[in-house]
Specification:
By secondary structure, the protein is an all-alpha fold. Helix 1 runs parallel beside helix 15 and helix 5 runs antiparallel to helix 12. The chain is globular and about 70 Å long.
């Protein structure tokens, strides 16, 4: 099969996937304009099915493509990135039961038990929209770049056109399908990704006689860094001004704590019938994600061994091309029928990964607009028209998608890695402290909650502005400027303690709570199942 035939097969598989996704969303979309139907699918998802969907929400292009590239280029440091990806779900497992017991549809509903005021709900909705929008840009940029490269369209204009088309399709699918449509899309994506990665791993291990030691020796011999490949420190090469220990710990902290409370993943917990089902869903997702991450580790090592670190860095400086590069060398290469079939399957899996995550982000953002901002903050009435709320949520999905598509249109000329780190750091520094205090500290007050949400997010934005991710390096967001004085790629090491401290400080200095003017929230453990 020629290269042109392979590209044609990739295009056909993409079109079939998009048509299938739209058809599923139309078929499974809510028949009645009910919030519970649209946001959480009436909580009828079984733990295993919801676990597959939760894994689909969690597994992003960074998990599938980025982890493999990190292992291929950075060895030891990349393995820690992979471990942190799994550890984040372990953190979520600790919060799953209480979150489901307190929550209704959104994160703001969890906080409402503690502080039912409008200010907290608006702050939570704004932080949710900020995180979702940043991650939306990262995922849409990734799928546009990968799709354009696979189709042989290298021009930025073609990539932008692809980003616009995919963004519009996802917005339509989300607005029509709601949670039930998103669940079907996420579960199908998880199966496709698992099958594709397992086939690549099998082909790689056949090449190395199913001997992991041979694979490790070949990776060390051909990675381009020699014995340093399995020693800490290669991650620092991209930021030579940083102390390896502090920078590395900050990056892992943002992954473990930020990914554990990403709004679109947390919203998936509310689609389960009860806290027990939520915990089972997370456990099922943890198994699936562990298998996926293990596959990406093997693929990363296989890329270093069979392709070589120098070639990978030349073709893809960030390592994001590792999966597709090594797939192209397996099973006789893309010129053979088996090689072309494997290449098309993996391409479809990468495409489906970003497609499904963007759908989850769009649904979560629409819930923040329709439920938190429109119904709870603006209308403030249980008698408000439910149909109007869902219509607002759908228009919210369209508006968020429009902003995300516009940012992506411009961001294809930028280094967008910063967007991912900021999204994770904001989640880890504002949402996580707010959730931990809300669920487990009886003296947490409305002021403490506001200080955590606003202060934690503001701390990330201010500190990140002065890091090499923004300026000072050729790979920075603004490569021609230099106002970086904080030598970290992620500021989570500073901002996460700040978020917890602000929550404590705001609560202990809240005179209204101390004088009995503010009703304290329910104690940990005294929760009601909605």
């Amino acid at each position: 099969m020629s290269g042109g035939d392979t590209q044609g097969a990739v295009l056909i598989s993409f079109l079939l996937l998009v048509v299938a996704a739209l058809f599923a969303c139309l078929l499974l979309g809510p028949q009645r304009e009910e919030a519970e139907n649209f946001y959480i699918g009436r909580r009828k998802n079984k733990p295993v099915r919801n676990g597959l969907a939760l894994a689909g929400d969690y597994i992003s292009s960074a998990t599938v493509v980025g982890t493999a590239g990190s292992v291929a280029l950075m060895g030891f440091d990349g393995l820690f990135v992979a471990g942190s990806t799994v550890a984040a779900l372990a953190v979520m497992a600790l919060l799953a039961g209480p979150l489901r017991a307190r929550g209704r549809y959104t994160l703001a509903d969890v906080f409402a038990d503690r502080a039912p005021g409008t200010a907290v709900r608006v702050a939570a909705a704004v932080v949710t929209l900020l995180v979702c929008l940043l991650y939306f840009v990262v995922q849409l940029s990734a799928v546009a770049l990968v799709t354009a490269q696979l189709l042989g369209l290298e021009a930025v204009g073609a990539q932008r056109a692809i980003a616009v088309m995919i963004g519009v399709l996802i917005a339509c699918a989300t607005a029509v399908g709601g949670m039930r449509g998103a669940t079907a899309l996420q579960a199908a994506k998880t199966v496709i990704v698992l099958v594709a990665l397992l086939l690549v791993v099998g082909a790689l291990l056949v090449r190395f006689d199913w001997n992991p030691l041979v694979l490790l020796e070949a990776a060390q011999a051909h990675n381009g860094s020699g014995s340093a490949y399995f020693r800490p420190g290669l991650l620092q090469a991209s930021n030579p001004s940083a102390s390896w220990t502090f920078d590395f710990v900050g990056l892992q902290l943002s992954i473990v704590l930020g990914a554990a409370v990403m709004p679109h993943v947390v919203m998936r917990l509310h689609a389960t019938p009860d806290p027990t089902a939520a915990r089972r869903s997370v456990r099922a997702a943890l198994v699936v994600v562990t298998v996926v991450v293990a596959c990406t580790v093997v693929i990363g090592l296989g890329t270093a061994a069979s392709v070589g670190g120098a070639k990978l860095a030349a073709v893809s400086p960030g390592g994001t091309g590792a999966l597709m590069l090594v797939t192209g060398t397996l099973a006789g290469g893309p010129g053979s029928a088996s090689g072309a079939a494997l290449f098309v399957l993996v391409s479809t899996a990468v495409f489906a990964t970003s497609l499904a995550v963007i759908a989850g982000l769009t649904l979560t953002a629409s819930a923040a607009v329709g439920h938190d901002l429109y119904r709870q903050a603006l209308r403030r009435a249980e008698s408000a028209d439910r149909g109007a709320e869902i219509s607002t949520a759908r228009w919210g999905a369209a508006a968020v998608s429009a902003v995300g598509i516009s940012l992506t249109y411009a961001a294809l000329d930028w280094n967008i890695q910063m967007f991912s780190w900021v999204a994770l750091a904001v989640a880890a520094s504002s949402l996580l402290p707010a959730l931990v205090h809300t669920l487990f500290w009886g003296r947490f007050t409305e002021r403490g909650l506001l200080w955590t949400l606003v202060g934690g997010s503001g701390c990330v934005v201010v500190l990140q502005t002065f890091t090499p991710m923004v300026s000072g390096l050729p790979s920075s967001f603004l490569p021609h400027a230099d106002f970086a004085w904080l030598p970290f790629q992620s500021v989570a090491l500073l901002s996460v303690p700040c978020g917890f401290l602000l929550g404590w400080l705001g609560s202990v200095t809240d005179r209204r709570a101390l004088s009995g003017g503010t009703r304290p929230g329910p104690a940990a453990g005294k929760v009601s199942v909605r």
